[in-house]
Amino acid sequence: MSTPLNSTKTTAAFFAQSAIAFGVSFLGLLFGICYLPLDMWQRLFLAMAGLFLVSSTFGLAKTVRDMQEASTVRVRIDEARIDRLLNEHDPLRTFTAASS
């Protein structure tokens, strides 16, 4: 029994829009850090917070994607097949048959 692949692919336009929005917002953050009238330690704090925000955003996006991917029917069917195979497999059955 074959299961249809129901993969949802993003369009090139959506990918481009997302990449441009990320680039513009990151450049805006860097511009603000460089040109705000702040002391050096305040600039470094904002830079550290900005880099942490960017890295945690990527981590959150990956987690959300993985959770959504794990809930698809295809993945659940594959997990059920693997569970069935593991339950049917008895490693001692072949050993006891060979020793008799």
TrEMBL record:
Superkingdom as given in the UniProt entry: Bacteria
TM ranges: 12-38, 44-61
Residues in YiaAB two helix domain copies: 14-66
InterPro entries: YiaAB
Keywords: Membrane, Transmembrane, Transmembrane helix
Pfam families, alphabetized: YiaAB
Protein name per Swiss-Prot or TrEMBL: YiaA/B two helix domain protein
